Amino acid sequence: MSIFNKVLEIYQDQYICLDCLGRMFSLLGTDSTNKERGKSLLLSLTMEYHQKYLTGEEKVRSNAIAYLKLIANRAKFTPAREILKKEGFKTSLTDENPYCYLCHNIFQSLDNYVQQGINALNKIEYSTFLVGTSPSGKIINNEDKFKAKHNIIEAESFKTHLNREIGKKLLNELDKLTDFTQPDITLIYSIDYDKSSINLIIRSLFILGRYKKLIRGIPQTRWLCRKCSGDGCEICNHTGKQYETSVEELITPEFIKSSQANDSKFHGAGREDIDVRMIGTGRPFIIELKNPKIRTFDLENIQNIVNNVNKDKIEISNLSFTNKKQVISMKENAENTKKTYKAITESTSELSDENFQEKLVKIINTFENKKINQRTPHRVAHRRADKIRDKMIFKIEGKYIKSNLFEFLIETQGGTYIKELISGDDGRTSPSFSEILEIPLKCAELDVLKIDY
Hints:
- By secondary structure, the protein is α+β, with helices and mostly antiparallel strands.
- 36% of the residues lie in helices and 26% in strands.
- It is built from 14 helices and 14 strands.
- β6 and β7 (277-290) form a beta hairpin.
- α2 crosses α3 (34-55), α3 (34-55) runs antiparallel to α4 and α6 packs across α8.
- The protein is elongated and about 125 Å long.
- The two termini are 67 Å apart.
- The mean pLDDT is 93.
């Protein structure tokens, strides 16, 4: 069946608007909008049957008038109506707005959806946007049945056409740019024949920096109470938390306030234990701000506020805007970093300075630039997989403080369990400092001095 015959068949069945007619044949031809394509199809049919009326025999002329009336009355096509009037024939076309069987005139009401989008975007800062739609099952099913009935296989979907048409109009109204990969904001229209709503998907904002944890006793991120899992109970004094605060909770509020974000997530390049300080150059971190209404703000000012409020607790520095790729990279490379620790160790037995120096040489020879095997420590076995990890020890320095107290500077691969490197953890880390010194050692204090990231 030719395209023209298929168009006539469509209008013998139902009225559809020019937008919907054009998109039924959208894959045929280029450099035209669906509306223009629909108009061209009807105009071509009008011209063809007008010519047949003017030049054909009586039967041909009679058929031509019948088809012109179909195009004028059922397709509601004004040029066909004007031809009939010119040739002295009456038409039944009224001035009422015709009702499209497929879209229910949604494509003639795009300005309403555009205004709805503009209202939704009010008071939100963004540079790029994208439009998406979620048509109701009623719209999709109705159209699928229509295309199957008329054997239409070259059509563009309702959704694709509506995305583009609303997007073009918003582009003109908003003076913003569209971005099809990472828009700052995506407008998702939920569309039914008689109603619509908008859901905004705002791309998260990412802030890269470094933090120092100057005190012991606070975790990196918020810990839920083990008893109530965050609901609040007598054990946690109804806070829902295992610890009063965390590095995350000390840093993020000012960022949430400045960005007007709904929530945040803290990403660290590894983490130190609760009783370990993070000093020196600090640990890299990224704050992910979710659904931010503001995307530009003064990072230096925020840094100063956070540091002043949390003086002697935490300190942040080197703030900059970044992206999600940096989060992925930071996580993937966490174990490839080099970390330098200072460990104060205690022994249950005494050593002389001379004896310590002799054993220190043995420790250096045993560990420097060599790998060790570490099985998951007892203290974290409840939350981490029980497996053996190979870790590189790069450099060790030792210092004798007194007979049962020693200081070590240890440079290792990221993810090395330093406390267990010292104690041996009942043989789960071997060799260990305790094994080489031939006396039981435990880590009394541990500080992270440097992370090469």
